[in-house]
Amino acid sequence: MTRRRAVLRSLALAGTGTFAGCGGLGGEATPTPSERVERGAAEPVSISRTYDRGRYAYLDAQHAVRYPATASAGTPIPTGTPAYPEQYATTPFERWGRLRTAAISAGRVATALETRFSGTIETGSGAAPHGDEIVAYVSLTTVLDRGGRVDFTPEQEFGPVVDATPESVHATVRLADQEYSRTVPVWVEERTIRQTS
Q1: Does residue 175 carry a pLDDT above 90?
Q2: Assuming Cys at both sites, which of 23, 46, 146, 158 could form a disulfide with 170, CB separation 3.0 to 4.6 Å?
Q3: pTM of the model
Q4: Do residues 195 and 24 make contact, with C-beta atoms less than 8 angstroms apart?
Q5: pLDDT tens for residues 56-70?
Q6: Is the CB of residue 57 less than 8 Å from the CB of residue 65?
Q7: Per residue in 111-138, is it b (16+ CB within 10 Å) or e — as a string?
Q8: 3-state SS string over the chain?
Q9: What number of other Cβ atoms are within 10 A of residue 87's Cβ?
């Protein structure tokens, strides 16, 4: 994997200064305040997804969802072995729906940008809290090394990315006979981070 591809993959995994914590850059990194944050300006898009009962289970009596527990780093806990018995957690259906719609919206936005830019676009994307909402975001991130020199900068400029990013995603998720729909706002952020190790 080339250095450029490695950084791109890291940015896709990293959070953003406004929307989440930093991580995934192969070392500690210090975010600076976002230089610019704007809503996407392109036409809204939509996505829907139906989840089977293998990974998630709807609990009718609690109007909740049972899902596989994860480790603190976000990786699934291995199950089905003596050392790691099956482990699950539950959450109210509406909260699960809010999280899942934001997650699938982030993927839908990434696909839309790849189509509009005819290939790989050098951004990170994801879902995170923003005020009282859980939103989808796109992040254009410049990475500085420990000495303050530019180690990576996206080829795309902020304005064209804002223009190409959907302003929202109408997302629907289904589990068992339950359905949850909402319009997920999409934000675009430009920021700089400096690696500290």
Answers
A1: yes
A2: 46
A3: 0.76
A4: no
A5: 999 999 999 998 876
A6: yes
A7: ebbeeebeeebbbbbbbbebeeebbbbb
A8: CCHHHHHHHHHHHCCCCCCCCCCCCCCCEEECCCCEEEECCECCEEEEEEECCCCCEEECCCCEEEEECECCCCCECCCCECCECCCEEEEEHHHHHHHHHHHHHHHHHHHHHHHHCCCCCCCEEEEEEECCEEEEEEEEEEEECCCCCEEECCCCCHHHHHHHCECEEEEEEEECCEEEEEEEEEEEEEEEEEECC
A9: 13
CA distance linking residue 53 with residue 152, whole number of Å? 42
Q: Tell how strand 64-68 and strand 29-31 pair up.
A: unpaired
Give the whole-angstrom CA distance, residue 173 versus residue 49. 5
- What tokens does 159 get? 């304005």
Task: Give pLDDT tens digits for 9-23.
Answer: 344 434 444 554 333
What is the side-by-side strand order in the sheet with 64-68? 57-59, 64-68, 88-92
Residue 194 or 28, more confident: 194
Structure tokens at 26: 């192969």
